[in-house]
C-alpha cells in the first residue's frame, strides 16, 4: 500500500472526517496494546452516542468496556500487523444499546513505514442485523418444529421443486433419501402414489390442489395399501405481494385414532353381553327402514321378544345362569334371520327384530319358529335342569301409520297380549286384541 502520512491534530481530523458520508474514526496506534481515539465524526457521534470532545485523545480502554476494548483491539492489531485495509463485522454494546457495524480499517504509515494511525469507516447495519436475526430466529423455530413435529411435512415450491421436508415425512411415506435429494416434486409424488389404495383419485386431487394455488384442504383421509390411514392437510403459500410461492403438505398417521374411534362406535352400538346391536341401533334402523318402506311401498314388520319368567331363572339358578340363557337365546335366534334384518337387545330380557320387506304372515311364521326353537333349549345349573320360553309380539306397517313408533308400539301391544294369554306364544297386531287364555 502507498505510504500516507497523516499528522493532523484532533480538531483538524474531525473536520476532515465530517466530509465523509459515513461514520468514521481515527485511532492512534501507541503500542500493540494501546490505541487512542484521535477523532470521531458527527455521523459516528450520532450512531454511537459518543462525543468527539469527550473521547478524542483517550485510550479505547478508557472509552469502551473492557470486553469491547479487547474485541476492537483484536481488529486494530490485525490491521497494524497486516499493514493493509481490512473489513469486518462487529457488535458494539454502546450506551445507546447493542449496535452492529460493518467496519473498514485503513492503516496510515510514518516515514519509517510503521503504522501509526488507523482510519475507520463504519456502516451501522443494526436494522439489517435485526432483520437477519429475526429471520434466523424464525428459521430456528421452524427447524425445531419440523424436527419435533409428529406430522410429516413437505414444502414444494411453485416450480414443483421440493423446498423442505422433515424426518417424519420420510418415515410416514418411507421415501428414499435420494428421491428427496433430487428435489423433484414429481419423483416424490411417484414414490407416494405407489403406496395409496386409490392412486388415481389421489393424484387427481394433488394436481387439483396444485393448480388451485390457494385452496386449503383439511383432514382428508387417505387409506394406505399396508392398512394405515393418513390424514392430509394442505395449503398454498403466498408472498406478501400475493405471488404464489408453493404449497405445504402435512400428513398425519391416524391409524390408531381411527381404530379407537371405530372401537368406540362399535361399543356405543353393541350390547356388551350378547354382542348384538343395542336399542339405539334398532331405533335408527327402524327410522331408515320406515322411510324406505314408505318411499318404495315395501312392507316392514317388527318382532318384540321377551323371555318368560326370566326373574325366576335368575332367582333359582343364579344371575350367571341368566346371562348364559341370554347368550344362548341370541345364538339360537341369530342364524334364523337374514343379514338385512336387525336383531337387537332392547334392554334386560327384551329383544326386537326388524324385518324389512317382510309381510305380517312371514313375520308371524318366523316368530313361531323362534318360539319353538327357544322352547327346545335346555340348561343345567347346580340347581338342576331348566328351560326357557319366549313371548313374541308381531306387527307390520299399516297404510295409515304416520311414524315408525306406531309400528313398534303395536308390536309391544302384541307382546303384552302374548304374555297375558299365557306366554310362550306369538300374537300379531291383527289377531283378536283381547287375550283369550292359553293358545
Ligand atoms: N342374568 C341377567 N338378568 C337380567 C339382565 N337384565 C335384566 N335381567 C333380569 O331380568 C329380570 C326381568 O324380570 P321381569 O321384568 O320381572 O320379567 P320376567 O321375570 O321375565 O317376567 P315376564 O316378562 O312377565 O315373563 C329381572 O330380574 C332383571 O334383573 C341381564 O343382563 N342378566
From TrEMBL:
This is diguanylate cyclase. Residues 298-431 form the GGDEF domain. It is an enzyme of class 2 (transferase). It holds the Pfam family GGDEF. Residues 9-83 form the PAS domain. InterPro entries: Diguanylate_Cyclase, GGDEF_dom, Nucleotide_cyclase, PAS, PAS-assoc_C, PAS-like_dom_sf, PAS_4, Rev_trsase/Diguanyl_cyclase. Its EC number is 2.7.7.65.
